[in-house]
Amino acid sequence: MNDPDHIGIAGDWHGNTQWATSAIRQICERLPGENYKIILQAGDFGISSDTGEFTFARETRHRQTYLEAVSETLEKCNARLWFVDGNHEDHPHLAELTKGMQDDDAEVSHRIRHLRRGYRWQWHDRTWLAMGGAVSVDKLIRLKYGPGHWFAEETITDEQEAAAIAGGPADVILSHDAPAEAPLRLMRPAPLAWQPMIAEADEHREKMQRICCAVKPSYIFHGHYHQSNISTVRTAWGSCRFTALDMNGRRKNWGILDARTMEWKW
Q1: Domain total of the chain
Q2: Which of 3, 4, 77, 172 has the fewest beta carbons under 10 Å from its own?
Q3: Residue 56 domain-assigned?
Q4: Which parts of 132-196 are beta strand (E)?
């Protein structure tokens, strides 16, 4: 495919069908000149093992699942969606959906592709790096709900960190979490139920920081924190523009990027 001139980039959708399909349609309306419309999604996309089956009047029936609805909307818009995994995905189910697939072709559904941690690609002479994963600060609450509400695979492993660093420089990072130097508005002190996980969350941001110090990105797009912000910061690895994307239901959940000039519009 040719390098896209403009793409959409979105933050967390959390499996919200109405929001995701509406966002896709609105983004695609703003990509009229693109023959190959691409939307990047920065994690907590909404991978779930829900089959869409339910019982009514003693009959097993089927409702359209989130992935089916998103795929159908992408088909109508002639678009593709590439996502990094967030901490709230059903990670074992995600692994099963892409089992045996190559990194270049890890489709979880028609037109929906998972960008595995450490995956790289090139657009307009810039190297992009995908790096999903983050810490669920509400882990202890989720564990009370039982299996299927929290997944140990949510965080970047030491092996994934080493592989990302070994891959060399990257100009742009699409991630779920953000490095330690990201200009975030964090609640400190954190809510009481989150406090046992704060140290682990900080440690994960330090892991992202080590990756960034090694690959030296000039641009980072991330989700996870449910806040919107765009700012250029002088970091330990150099000047970097951070774009934090808000969650579904909020105005600055997505925007349009000129992939040639890196100009951003909410």
Answers
A1: 1
A2: 3
A3: no
A4: 172-175
DSSP 183-245: -----SSPPTTTHHHHHHHHHHHHHHHHHHHHH--SEEEE-SSS--EEEEEEETTEEEEEEE-
- Asked whether 264 and 40 are in contact (CB, 8 A), the reply is no
Task: State both tokens at 5.
Answer: 């001139």
User: Which residues constitute the domain of residue 142?
Assistant: 6-48+61-265
pTM of this prediction? 0.96
Please indicate, yes or no, if residue 70 is contained in any of the structural domains.
yes
| 266 residues of the chain, pLDDT tens digit each | 689 999 999 999 999 999 999 999 999 999 998 988 999 999 999 999 988 887 767 788 787 899 999 999 999 999 999 999 999 999 999 999 999 999 989 999 999 999 999 999 999 999 999 999 999 999 999 998 888 899 999 999 999 999 999 999 999 999 999 999 999 999 878 888 889 999 999 999 999 999 999 999 999 999 999 999 999 999 999 999 999 999 999 999 999 999 999 999 99
CATH number at residue 15: 3.60.21.10
- Residues 175 and 160: their CA atoms lie apart, in Å, by 13
Distance in angstroms (rounded) separating the CA atoms of residues 115 and 23: 20
Residue 39 falls within a domain, yes or no?
yes
CA distance 76 to 72: 6
Is 53 part of a structural domain of the chain?
A: no
Pairing between strand 238-244 and 229-235?
A: antiparallel
Degrees to nearest 5, angle at CA 255 with 118 and 85: 30
- What are 168's two structure tokens? 């060399």
Provide φ and ψ at 237, rounded to 5°.
-100, 0
Torsion of CA 189, 223, 158, 129, to 10 degrees: -150
